[in-house]
Amino acid sequence: MIDFEPTAEQQELKARVESFVRDKVIPFESDPRRTAHGPTDDLRDELVALAKAEGLLSPHVSEGWGGMGAGHMTKAVMFEASGYSMLGPITMNIAAPDEGNMHLLDEVATEAQKERYLKPLAAGEARSVFLMTEPSPGAGSDPGAMLTEARPDGNGWTISGRKWLITGAEGAKIGIVMARTFDEAGEDIGASMFMTPLPAEGLRVSRVLDTMDSSFTGGHAEVELDGLKVDGDAVLGEVGKGFRYAQVRLAPARLTHCMRWLGAAQRAHDIACGYARERESFGTKLIDHEGVGFMLADNEMDIHMSRLAVWHCAWVLDQGERGGRESSMAKVICSEALYRVADRCLQVLGGMGMTRDTEVERIFRELRGFRIYDGPSEVHRWSLAKQIKRR
Amino acid sequence: MIDFEPTAEQQELKARVESFVRDKVIPFESDPRRTAHGPTDDLRDELVALAKAEGLLSPHVSEGWGGMGAGHMTKAVMFEASGYSMLGPITMNIAAPDEGNMHLLDEVATEAQKERYLKPLAAGEARSVFLMTEPSPGAGSDPGAMLTEARPDGNGWTISGRKWLITGAEGAKIGIVMARTFDEAGEDIGASMFMTPLPAEGLRVSRVLDTMDSSFTGGHAEVELDGLKVDGDAVLGEVGKGFRYAQVRLAPARLTHCMRWLGAAQRAHDIACGYARERESFGTKLIDHEGVGFMLADNEMDIHMSRLAVWHCAWVLDQGERGGRESSMAKVICSEALYRVADRCLQVLGGMGMTRDTEVERIFRELRGFRIYDGPSEVHRWSLAKQIKRR
Amino acid sequence: MIDFEPTAEQQELKARVESFVRDKVIPFESDPRRTAHGPTDDLRDELVALAKAEGLLSPHVSEGWGGMGAGHMTKAVMFEASGYSMLGPITMNIAAPDEGNMHLLDEVATEAQKERYLKPLAAGEARSVFLMTEPSPGAGSDPGAMLTEARPDGNGWTISGRKWLITGAEGAKIGIVMARTFDEAGEDIGASMFMTPLPAEGLRVSRVLDTMDSSFTGGHAEVELDGLKVDGDAVLGEVGKGFRYAQVRLAPARLTHCMRWLGAAQRAHDIACGYARERESFGTKLIDHEGVGFMLADNEMDIHMSRLAVWHCAWVLDQGERGGRESSMAKVICSEALYRVADRCLQVLGGMGMTRDTEVERIFRELRGFRIYDGPSEVHRWSLAKQIKRR
Amino acid sequence: MIDFEPTAEQQELKARVESFVRDKVIPFESDPRRTAHGPTDDLRDELVALAKAEGLLSPHVSEGWGGMGAGHMTKAVMFEASGYSMLGPITMNIAAPDEGNMHLLDEVATEAQKERYLKPLAAGEARSVFLMTEPSPGAGSDPGAMLTEARPDGNGWTISGRKWLITGAEGAKIGIVMARTFDEAGEDIGASMFMTPLPAEGLRVSRVLDTMDSSFTGGHAEVELDGLKVDGDAVLGEVGKGFRYAQVRLAPARLTHCMRWLGAAQRAHDIACGYARERESFGTKLIDHEGVGFMLADNEMDIHMSRLAVWHCAWVLDQGERGGRESSMAKVICSEALYRVADRCLQVLGGMGMTRDTEVERIFRELRGFRIYDGPSEVHRWSLAKQIKRR
Question: Residues in domain Acyl-CoA dehydrogenase/oxidase N-terminal (chains A, B, C, D) (predicted)?
Fold first, then answer.
């Protein structure tokens, strides 16, 4: 039966996160440790300790491994509330890529792998990286073009290749490496995922890229894999099934992005509304100019639609479905609608919007990335069109 | 608890309407009695008889007055399914303005008024008009500018003025007239609604307008009120509360528009998808051109979002709330998104899209009106902005 | 040297057309002979006589054949002024498809063909059709898919096939048929164009289509070619070069569409501005609502840009260049920008916009077709992208 | 007579600037002296020396004062070519705000003022600031709200107030201060402009703002005026006519913005085209995906339109007209169209687009500011609507 009211428990969690973010996290937004390559690990550790003290760390992880075992709908309300500050998700240990990596390990890893990797991650004691994307001509939006290779080496594997735009690489303690795998006979047996502690010999962060966005701890880096050695038990799940696991990770990871950005867009909107109610121009409050009021009305509609799309997809995932189509739609709808929100907020703020005196400037830059990260809109539209064709 | 699954009963009703529309209604789409001023009353009567036979007539009316007493969510699924043919809502007696008028009577009328007006309406034996809009300088989007006047006359009232864009006037048997009301002392005591049987002396359909849309029986007309006399019991509800009742009618009426148009847009999309899968151009199926596939993907997202917005608002109304904000948002979101859908479908069909050889051309024209009827987007944005200001 | 001022002669011609259209043509806009399939031939003849009397008939035709030999820039100013009424181009004999057909004959036909076909066309005594487009699976946007065939027959040809969306077929006296041509050996030797007087045995207008637009005399028809016989001298230019001549016709024809629609959009804009200055809503003139004022400002920018794009392309053509890229850009820019103008005007007019009480409703419907006729936007974007690739 | 061909001299200047920018300026784009607050003065000086050596410094200044006396159309071609590198305008001393300040001095200043201020500016030996914008509740988009005050003090003036978003303040040697002026009697006699050498007692750069854009030397700063003393001959033009002079400066300054950004957008487009021709995805070059090809086609149309709008407005200004309406239209058209270009380029580049590995990321950030600086789009639309109303 159609119902748009979260459970009492979900509402209580939402309220807890909201007040936590407002009271404890937002004050850190003026902290100088927010660098062009993201908050420093030092700042991150301080924030994580706050969430741990509040009992709000890693809610998405299984209860057995230190989390709350929150389902997708519960994540929807908590992550949105967390995203209200760009520092919220880092604080609660639910930022990309760690959140998705934990989800993947929770679903696919052996008990031993969980003990070794998931436990410290869930406790916020380590950060992790997901090494999939490659520089041209390797795997960008098209994972099939992967060039990194893993070849058998004793009872383990040796991995070589180049990765690129690897979020959080600088300072990470755990890596998940995606590589095209070959058997003893040199036959390509499909892509596999390999776990590795970091730092590791044979894996080098060659460069942290300067990027428009600046909210991920460690930034985005170029990584050289030059004979990285991993043991046989480093394989996550089965050899050759890397793309299948990537799917396990990607659909929900795509959706949690939507949840977090939804909160960020709401923040930008609240700032713009506050400004429009106060600032006067040409003899009247900004908000009384229809040119401004209409932008704010459009924001409310875009936020409303995005929230509905997120909730719907979360519900689909909670029913145990793959949700490929729904998460593609949610990704495109949210990334484009929320970006429009940020863009309008910036415009409403005028010159002020271009400055870092409000969080809007930062939210705008981050949301620009959201239209590209985890699959550009074009790739999702292409995928949706293919589904229409087959139907 | 968040749930996106309609009840079993709702799903069964949806399925019944879907097969009814496909099997019984769509064959009438090539009927020449679909004129530039809408389907003739003759065609309407034939269609209504079909719905009556199927037990699908007037589902929105209270059970006591001949309907199913369907709540807003139940209407959401049934009306969308009905709208899949532009003839569906007329067939099931849930087209504007009758559907909203019945809803209004159901909520506000006395038993005697219901017996006299609601009963034949619900039975599909009569059509009705809602006489509110006036030509310039009267009440257009701004009801406050109303010029039509009702003045005391014996134990009744005499009404004079001009109405315009009155949907279904030609052939209607029942009228609801909105007029600025004056007391014996000549004091303006607010707007009131008056019931009148039709035809009536003092009320003349002076002209049926040629309009872009052509799906409302009776078309849209100009009506002259020149001393229309009504009894004291003709007042709907209380004297002077006309705008309040207009609100009772408008928010749900706005939403049922969204429901019906949603079905129409889905129809256009299905036609465009079918065409794109078959038609070849430049050596490949149309759907394999990204330029076309992306448009169809956007359609699916716009339809998805519109459906979520409708369901959400229906749920709000079912909770007993006024839903002013939610219905304004749903109206703007749906009218603009579904219009984009129709526009893209027409473009995908190319030259064929401009012809009446498919229903897309008609759906496009009707949806253009949807962005204006029941409040242009601009009025809703303005109203949303005012709410943001006050918050 | 960059100059944006038309010559004195061009300005004088523009002024003449403007006053002619306002004084003589616009009064006919309420003529009931404007049917759903275009103005009747009777109305057309009456209008053409007016232009002849005014010395404004067929200005684009060579002076030797009854016109003024107007260059592209001169056409730009005259055709825009003519398009200010949807009846203007018909009146001045510069409407599609006749205008383009005359241009083609002027460029390619033999003296004898000109005497036989161009002369009566230029004098406004006959209308013509261009039979290229075919129903699926034939030549739609992709002329390469043409299925109509011409085969040798004595010293002439016999042509069979089906054409579709043939503008002005009903009542036309001259036809230009495009057909895939075969030699005696049955070898495909390319497409050719054939002239034929009409009516003709073997060519049948099987149906006039109902379409959204309604401004072309004769409407758009389906035509059956079943053994149409033409003489050897019926070939326009050389056998097998039909596509080359189609290009000669298409680039300028595309641009004259832009010129005429520009005038129509200007008309819609003037109507909307007039309405917005007069109509009050919520206590103030519509134009004082930024929501309306901004739409009108956007109209002015879209009209400004369209005019610049037309002028630029006309200048390129006047330099003797093919202008394929420029005319594709002008077609997409103008069709989309001018459509937006019409759409905004309709929205500004509100309910009035949906009625035929102003010309805006009609202009909107016609402009919707403009985004498809003479190559949908998608085909032009595709062609522009191919040029970018090659560069 | 309409002509779209620049003069031979203009074409030669364009070619000279193009090769200068490519050969001499672009190599500096990887210089680490490009900071978050713009290129350092050190880097600027090095670049300016290059332009001086090439004879391409300050072409817009009168010949008598060290420039070429380039008219608006000549500026159009030179500035666009210069903008092809974000460092080009700084190199050629035609960046904001210096370019507009020199233009203002050239038009309004006394010979003595020109000798003292224009000469070193034109020689590239000094940078200048235009102190107009104020923090809330002062003069933002609405100059009428100005709060800074100048009061008589001996034979000069004392100025106090706060300025904000003052471009290039850090390191500037010359200031133009806009202030509301009072006479001896304390009467407000209108706004005036005052020249001042910098640094100066009573004028303090209190903070350089962190902003999204980063291409202006000195960045954007907050400036405190606390009893700044200027002599009587410091007044630019006449007392009380400050807004009139602001207009002298603003329309052309607005247009030169368009010229420079046009070059920048062209650069972004060229980068995106190059990438799309090389990068493969899903088995084919990016450019062969219509989803990408259409974006690039749209870029070409947006660039084409922007160039035509710039040329048209430059021509209007060269005719000696004020060009208020034309420059407003050009500002809105260019800022929005060129921003769309940058946005599409970034999207085509995917993850790479978010990095500083190409200039696109920077161009995107700068162009976002362009939609706000020198009047946000909304203020120009508002002004255009007012003109429509009056017409």
Answer: 7-125
- pLDDT of D141 higher than 80: no
- Pick from B216, B287, B372 the residue to mutate for testing the C interface (most C CBs within 10 Å): B372
- Of the candidates D137, D8, D139, the residue with the CA atom closest to the CA atom of residue D77: D8
C225-264 residue pLDDT tens: 999 999 999 999 999 999 999 888 888 999 999 999 999 9
A interface with B, Cβ–Cβ < 8 A, is: 1-7, 73, 273, 277, 285, 287-288, 290, 292-294, 296-298, 300-301, 304-305, 308-309, 311-312, 314-316, 329, 332-333, 378, 380-382, 384-386, 388-389, 391
Chain centroid to Cα B120, Å, comes to 19
Partners for C (CB, 8 Å, 3+ pairs)? A, B, D
Q: What is the pLDDT of residue A169?
A: 97
The answer to whether residue B10 scores a pLDDT higher than 80 is yes
Separation CA A2–CA D319 (nearest Å): 67
**C-alpha span between D165 and D373 (Å, rounded):** 10
- What average pLDDT does this structure show over C287-311? 98
For residue C371, which residues of chain B lie inside 8 Å, CB to CB?
347
A54 beta partners: none
Beta carbons within 10 angstroms of residue A131's beta carbon: 29
- Is the pTM for the entire model greater than 0.95? yes
CA angle, residues D292, D293, D298, in degrees to nearest 5:
100
Residue of D nearest to C377 (CA): D294
Which amino acid appears at position C358 of this protein? T
Reduce the DSSP state of residue D291 to 3 states and report it: helix
Contact yes or no for A235/A331 (Cβ under 8 A): no
pLDDT recorded at residue C250 = 83
Decide the pairing of beta strands A156-167 and A220-230.
antiparallel
Closest residue in D to A221 (Cα–Cα) = D355
pLDDT in tens, B97-147: 999 999 999 999 999 999 999 999 999 999 999 999 999 888 887 878 899
- Which residues of chain A neighbour B7 with C-beta distances below 8 Å? 1-2
Q: ipTM higher than 0.90?
A: yes
* Contacts A291 to C, Cβ<8 Å: 290-291, 294
Q: Give the chain D residue whose CA is nearest to the CA of A368.
A: D354
Task: Tell me what the pLDDT averaged over chain A comes to.
Answer: 96
- Shortest Cα distance, chain B CAs vs residue C291, angstroms: 7
Q: What is the C-alpha to C-alpha distance for residues C298 and C143, in angstroms, rounded to an integer?
A: 36
Cβ–Cβ below 8 Å for D291 and B291: yes
Instruction: Identify from C282, C285, C286, C290 which residue to disrupt to test chain A contact, counting A C-beta atoms within 10 A and taking the largest count.
Output: C290
Q: Which residues 6+ apart lie within 8 Å of D300 measured at CB?
A: C329, C384, C388, D269
- Phi (first) and psi of residue A148, to 5 degrees: -65, 135
Cα separation values, B279 from B334, B360, C138, C222, D50, Å: 29, 16, 10, 18, 60
B292–C145 CB contact, under 8 Å: no
> What residues are paired with B43 via a beta bridge?
none
What b/e sequence results for C197-212 when a residue is b if at least 16 CB atoms lie within 10 Å of its CB, and e otherwise?
Answer: ebeeeebbbebbbbbb
